[in-house]
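agent: user wants the full assembly modeled, not chains individually. Plan: 1) parse entity lines 2) check alphabet per entity 3) run joint structure prediction 4) return tokens. Steps 1-2 passed, two entities, 430 residues total. Proceeding.
--- entities ---
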Amino acid sequence: MFPGGLLLILDPDGFPGLELSKTAERALAAGARAVQLRSKRFSRRALYAEALEIRKLTRLRGAVFLVNDYVDLALAVEADGVHLGQSDLPLSVARRLIGPGDILGASARTPEEALAAAREGANYLGVGAIYPTTSKAEARVVGLEGLRAVRDAVELPIMAIGGITPERVPDVIEAGADGVAVLSAVLGAPRLEEAVERFLAAIRMAEQSRSKTRS
Amino acid sequence: MFPGGLLLILDPDGFPGLELSKTAERALAAGARAVQLRSKRFSRRALYAEALEIRKLTRLRGAVFLVNDYVDLALAVEADGVHLGQSDLPLSVARRLIGPGDILGASARTPEEALAAAREGANYLGVGAIYPTTSKAEARVVGLEGLRAVRDAVELPIMAIGGITPERVPDVIEAGADGVAVLSAVLGAPRLEEAVERFLAAIRMAEQSRSKTRS
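--- prediction returned ---
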């Protein structure tokens, strides 16, 4: 179910030599239900070839496939949606291009950005960095407090991102996230499948514990 | 008339501080009939704002507006078309996204690339660098011979690019170009309007001289 759960971000920039479609396949086989393709450095031509493969694999598994930044690439491979940052095309413009049915995700660090994204038609928010992270060293850390502030401001589903490990999942879900987006903790893990399974188990447990608290 | 004539490429990467829409307006007022927006460094958000302005100005003047690289940006501002390089989205994919009526330009350095572009639906070719150029220092020089080789291989209109000055226009047109794309020779000129006018006059004369030779 997406948004929610685990979103694996396939980002070759920080993991040179990463075999994108093979990694996607392994993660999906281990239970991941959503992947996002992200690269600032790859050429669009190279990303297109990768995206086509990942689209096939995610379709076979009934998993969600999102493309970061590039609306044209998302359209070209019939991805399920795009994720945009604050310096990408405006969300309202992207919504017009992808149509009403596709998923539109937006990075938001503050309640103001979150409210703007909600107004412009985002379906979910990516909020982070929750913790310091090596895979996007320049990302400002908003912490669990920043996550709570966004949670209080909007109804939109939130995917938390940045330095999240399976051990940290309970705190992140408790602070209001509906799911977590990960890179290093899975892509850099000694055993990718195990890392995926540990995240999925941690998310499931945190969700159960949260719904008990709320009921 | 485009393809053909003069294509002014607005590229802020090589000309820091360049006021894009103001420059477009001055060039259009001086007679330019086609402009292309190109930047590898600007954020898509920033380019979108510039592209909207340039779209307004070109529409007012009945001039052609092309966007380099970014098919989504071209769609978003209803540009007249896109220009793609060898590392961008495949031409056939771009054609599918922009539809049959919009202009699709493709960079081609060799007869092979030119033939492939023709097969994939390009409306014109950008061929260069004809001469060494400062605005794209890494561009390989194909020279007038490279231009002739492409000219002999395909029927598509050719816009020659790279180090072209008004003085060099006759040679370039004689070698088979239908028009010239310029950056530095206009953007870096002491008086932009005069540079545009000199190019337009040189192209007009070279075309007349070519049609005399041919008839």
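agent: reporting back. Chain A has a mean pLDDT of 95. The longest strand of chain A covers residues 5-10.
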